[in-house]
Design brief:
Layout: E1 3-5, E2 8-13, H1 15-21, E3 30-32, H2 49-60, H3 66-76, E4 90-94, E5 97-101, H4 111-115, H5 118-128, E6 134-140, H6 144-153, E7 159-166, H7 172-179, E8 186-191, H8 195-207, H9 209-217, E9 220-223, H10 230-249, E10 259-264, H11 269-279, E11 284-291, H12 296-303, E12 305-307, H13 328-335, H14 340-353, E13 355-357, H15 360-369, E14 370-374, H16 377-391, H17 397-413, E15 419-423, H18 431-438, H19 441-444, H20 449-460, H21 466-469, E16 481-482, H22 487-494
Parallel strand pairs: 5-15, 6-7, 6-9, 7-8, 8-16, 10-11, 10-15, 11-14
Antiparallel strand pairs: 1-2, 1-3, 4-5, 12-13
The structure holds pyridoxal-5'-phosphate (PLP).
């Protein structure tokens, strides 16, 4: 399988090259250049998650040898990393309604599924491309990506990682997870301001040619663990197949029966993996794109007009607070039959005017597969409460957006296809909001977010994930709070270049 950029179909690259580079130098994203094979429906009957991952990885990583793929997968999804033997267990709420729990990894967010395996894929990529420089991963995070990347890359030889999180905007649990991070090759700093400040600071470092050149001369190459990397997307295709195979073996669906997935969406990475699963032959009816109040994607899917000219509104589902959904570019490329001229035109317009409008035909094609609506904070809280009351099942704020929007879908479209809600974080990562949704004020207002872990556990008789249960006893290792303009110096300090 060879890859090329969504903005130029001249250079063909191997999987190792695209995983090492992350983003194409022309600003586009890497995508498979070849038509995907259609997998037989029963191919995965009786397979474990790990077996399925091996089969799917092999299709896309044809320049990796089988043993390397197999090692990467067994190392990433071992029992010491995931606290459930099924990796992504499927929970039945009632006939026709299921939740796929994607948060059993070491940081309790779905990003672990990709970020546990990416370091191994990257290590092989360094080897086969004979990369001489040491890789330095720079990541700005709104909370989940940073911690997940730190856990994935800690103590990996030949790679260093630096994470910047906004001093305002992450939950207390998320902050503690990051400042207590262990590992000899890691660094974390808070950046004064919000996520955009941290993100812009990282972009400024990548765009600073003088700095990049100097680092190169010292033997360092900057890269990103952002969800634009193909190595982040590929691992996520697996769990769509896993959910389907599980429904089949539990006799919840018939062979070939089409199902829906409801996906809490931000950067469009998770739901795009669902689209690729569908391209590989998975019987998918509708992919339901659930947004929060930052509903750029909802507007786009319903009108064909993408418009980021609005203010970012902080919500209780912060990992979805985003105005530019980068992975949408890949979908547009696929839907237009790999028309890089069109993509360039739209993306130039997005960069210049903050908006673009696609043609009617493309919009119709997208709307045939995707359906979208959004939930505000109030609806999100109501959704947490009603799922708990109805099914005695605890969900986090992001999953609650998915559940709420699924209800809107069923009411509007009258489609009763069986549906899997993708659950993207443990409720224990967002204890403040979850407790606020479930309890009367007196029960939670006197507690810190950290204390609420125990309150929530006791009241709902559910377990705190092990990685969150000892946060208060861990040593704080990363205390720095810096101005955005100080980020380049902070990086040089960490690399001992000042
Ligand atoms: C990152 C994240 C999302 C959004 O996923 P995308 O792939 O960016 O669309 C949703 N929920 C949680 C908890 C996340 O961490």
């Amino acid at each position: 399988m060879k890859y090329y950029s969504t903005r130029n179909q001249i250079n063909y690259l191997t999987a190792a090259q695209v995983i090492k580079e992350g983003l194409s130098p022309d600003g586009g994203l890497y995508v498979p250049s070849e038509k995907l094979p259609v997998l037989p429906i029963n191919i995965f009957t009786g397979n474990s998650y790990i077996d399925m991952a091996k089969t799917i990885f092999k299709i896309f990583l044809s320049d990796y040898d089988e043993l390397e793929i197999s090692d990467a997968i067994t190392s990433a999804y071992g029992i010491e990393n995931f606290d459930h033997p099924e990796i992504t267990p499927l929970h039945k709420l009632k006939t026709g309604l299921y939740v796929l729990e994607l948060w059993h990894g070491p940081t309790s967010a779905f990003k672990d599924i990709a970020l546990q395996v990416l370091p191994y894929l990257l290590r092989t990529a360094i080897k086969v491309t004979r990369e001489k420089s040491e890789l330095v991963i720079l990541t700005a995070t709104s909370g989940d990506t940073g911690k997940s990347a730190l856990e994935g890359f800690k103590d990996i030889p030949g790679i260093k990682i630096v994470v910047y999180y906004p001093a305002r905007g992450v939950s207390e649990v998320q902050r503690l997870q990051m400042i207590t991070q262990e590992g000899n090759n890691v660094n974390v700093a808070a950046v004064k301001g919000n996520f955009d400040d941290a993100q812009n600071g990282v972009k400024a470092i990548f765009g600073n040619q003088q700095l990049v050149k100097m680092l190169k001369a010292k033997g360092y190459r900057l890269t990103s663990a952002n969800s634009i990397n193909w190595g982040r997307l590929l691992p996520q295709i697996v769990y769509y197949f896993y959910a389907y195979a599980k429904l089949l073996s539990n006799e919840e669906i018939r062979d070939g029966e089409k199902i829906n997935f409801a996906v809490p969406t931000g950067n469009f990475g998770n739901i795009l993996a669902g689209y690729y699963a569908r391209e590989l032959g998975l019987p998918v009816n509708r992919l339901i794109c659930a947004a929060n109040i930052n509903n750029v994607l909802t507007d786009f899917i319903n009108s064909g007009h993408y418009n980021r000219n609005r203010k970012l509104k902080p919500s209780i589902s912060p990992s979805m607070d985003i105005l530019i959904s980068s992975n949408l570019e890949r979908l547009l490329f696929e839907i237009t039959g790999h028309d890089s001229e069109k993509i360039k035109y739209w993306m130039d317009s997005l960069a210049k005017d903050g908006q673009y409008k696609i043609d009617n035909q493309t919009q119709r094609l997208i709307h045939d597969i995707f359906w979208s609506d959004f939930a505000d904070d109030n609806e999100t809280k109501k959704s947490i409460a009603s799922v708990y009351e109805e099914y005695n099942y605890l969900i986090d704020t992001h999953t609650a957006v998915g559940s709420c929007v699924l209800n809107k879908y069923r009411e509007t479209e009258k489609d009763q296809s069986k549906t899997v809600i993708l659950s993207t974080a443990s409720p224990y990562k967002f204890t403040g909001s979850v407790a606020g949704a479930l309890f009367v004020k007196e029960t939670y207002e006197n507690y810190s977010e950290l204390e609420l872990l125990k309150v929530l556990s006791k009241k709902t008789a559910t377990n705190i994930p092990a990685n969150l249960s000892n946060l208060d006893t861990k040593t704080i290792r990363h205390k720095q709070v810096i101005e955005r303009d100080a980020m380049p110096n902070h990086l040089l300090d960490f690399l001992k270049l000042t």
